[in-house]
Amino acid sequence: MDWTDDTIARLRDLWSQGLSTAEIGRQLSITKNAVVGKAHRLGLPPRPSPIRNRPVKDGVPGEAPPRRKSTPRGGKAAAAAAAANEDLLQSVAAVVAAPAEAAAATTPASAEKVAPAVAPAASKPAPAAVRPVAVPRAVVEPARKEPVVAPVAPAPRPAAARPVPSRFQEGVDRPVRRGPSCCWPIGDPGTPGFHFCGARPLSGKPYCAEHAAIAYVKIRDRRDGG
DNA sequence: CCCTGATTCGC
DNA sequence: GCGAATCAGG
Length: 226
Hints:
Region (Disordered): 40-77
Strand order of the largest sheet: 1-4
Helix content: 25-40%
Protein name: GcrA cell cycle regulator
Structural class: mainly alpha
Low-confidence stretches: 54-86, 88-151, 155-175
Pfam family, one: GcrA
InterPro entries: GcrA (IPR011681)
């Protein structure tokens, strides 16, 4: 791998986007090991690791068969990494908490499904021109085979100025129509006029065509003047 | 099995 | 410095 300034910058960018190492590797056409290794050497912030910490060997390693030539080290390093990890997690959690809560606030229990606060990671054959938006993996599901779009959290008042459709005058909590309905929030939650769009959603989506167009936007390389 | 990220260590 | 091999948890 030729680690030019550009590729390193790309790595840093993708890394900061919260993409998985494997995903970064795919986009850079390298292995995840290369990604991790480089990131490690670059001193990039550790990602939330599935591994809690490196087992301490001075105690009971838990039957860790020393397949390696030398026993795995990393007592201090692992501890530090773990600490940094938690620290990072806290920060990330704090950052993502707000949007999540906001979304939750606008999603009543009556909604049949939760809003798709999910950023589909680029699938394997993803074009290089697009890539998923930064979303910490902790709050997203594994990638779906969806078109590369990014969810946009509904604005607090996407249509505050809009008149309330007459079909909602009679019942706010229970839309007139049954079955799936667009759950795009309209108005202020908790206020009398608040309601959900209620139109027929696109199949497989929580929003109607109109609001899906707003909710899902194509991702463009933000470094490219986006 | 698949996935994940971290570490080690030969090169 | 690099990254495959390996580890280890979900």
